[in-house]
Amino acid sequence: MKLLKELTAIRATSGDESPMTEFLLSYIKKNKKSWKVQPQIFSGDGFQDALVLVFGKPKTAIYAHIDSIGYTVGYENNLIRIGGPRIIDGCELVGRDHKGPIETELLVIEHEDGEKNLQCVYNRKIDRGTPLTFKPHFRETKTYIQSPYLDNRLGVWVALEVAKNLENGAIVFSTYEEHHGGSAGFLARFLYEKYKIIQALVCDITWVTDGVTHGKGVAISMRDYGIPRRSYVNRIIEIAKKSKINYQREVESAGGSDGTILQASELPIDWCFVGAAENHVHSPDEKVFKKDIASMVALYEVLMKKL
Hints:
With 307 residues, the chain is an alpha/beta fold. The protein has 2 domains: 2-68 and 138-306, Aminopeptidase (3-Layer(aba) Sandwich); 71-134, Beta Barrel (Elongation Factor Tu (Ef-tu), domain 3), CATH 2.40.30.40. The chain has helices at 2-9, 18-31, 150-163, 184-195, 230-243, 258-264, 290-306; strands spanning 40-42, 51-55, 60-65, 70-73, 79-82, 92-97, 100-110, 116-121, 131-134, 139-140, 144-147, 169-174, 199-202, 206-207, 218-223, 247-251, 270-275, 277-278, 286-289. The strands form 4 sheets. The protein has an 8-stranded mixed β-sheet with strand order 1-2-12-3-13-17-15-16, sandwiched between helices. A 6-stranded antiparallel β-sheet has the order 5-4-9-6-7-8, with no helix packed on it. Strand 1 (40-42) and strand 2 form a beta hairpin.
C-alpha cells in the first residue's frame, strides 16, 4: 500500500491536477519497463492535465479521475468548496501559497438565518485562490484502508495495478470529475477518433448504502444519476458471474462520475461504473475494505480481456 499512501498525500484538487499528473508520468516512466506491454503515453498540449495510456489494440478504456475535492481560499480567508467535501468544524487542512506551506483548520460559523460561513483559522491572510485539502492521514489494518481521498486515488491505484499485465486497452486519467465533470468528454473523443473505442469502465469509488456494504465485493453500478445501456451492463455482470469474483449490484438514484459525462456526449460509448464502496464519503476518514479492493482489481483484469 506504499504507492496508495503516496497518492493520497498529493494535493490535486479539481483544476489543480498538475501535481498528480507529474507524479503519474514519473511513476509510469520509471516502472513501465516491468509491465507486460509498453504503452503509448499521451499528455501535454491538447490534454490539459489529463493523461492517456494505450496498450496494444484497445477495445475498452478505463477512466480513473485524478482530481479531489477540497476548498479554495477566497476573500479574508473565507473558504469556497471544490466539489462536495464533508463540512467538519475543526477539520485539518493543508496547502501552500507564495509564503510557504500552510496548515490550518476549518471554522464553521453558523448565522441566525441558518446560513453557514466557512473560514480557515490562520495567523495571516492566505493568498486568494489557494487550494486547500484534507491533511494526509493514512491508516491500514488487516481488513481495511482508511484515508482522505481514497475517492479516487484508490481508483488510480487500481488502474496502475491493471496496467502491469494489460495487453490491449486504454487507461484514462481524467480531470475535473469532482467539480461538475470535465475532461472525460474530449478524452473519449480522442480515443474514439484514433482507436474507435466505444466501451468504457469507470474506475472510481462508490458509497456504502443500504444495498451495498463492505466486504461483499466490488460494486457494479446498474444506474446512479446516469443510466448506462442495460445490455452492456448485463455483459459485465455475466463476465463477473463466470469469473466467480465477488461483486454487488448497485442501484442508486443520485451520484455521478465520468460515466455521466460520457453519456452526455454525442459519442456512441457504452459505460459502466465498477468500483469498491467506501463509507465516510468525502471526509478525512474514507474507509474501504481490502477484500473489496482485491475483487475490484481482479474484475478489471478479467473485463479488460473479456469485453
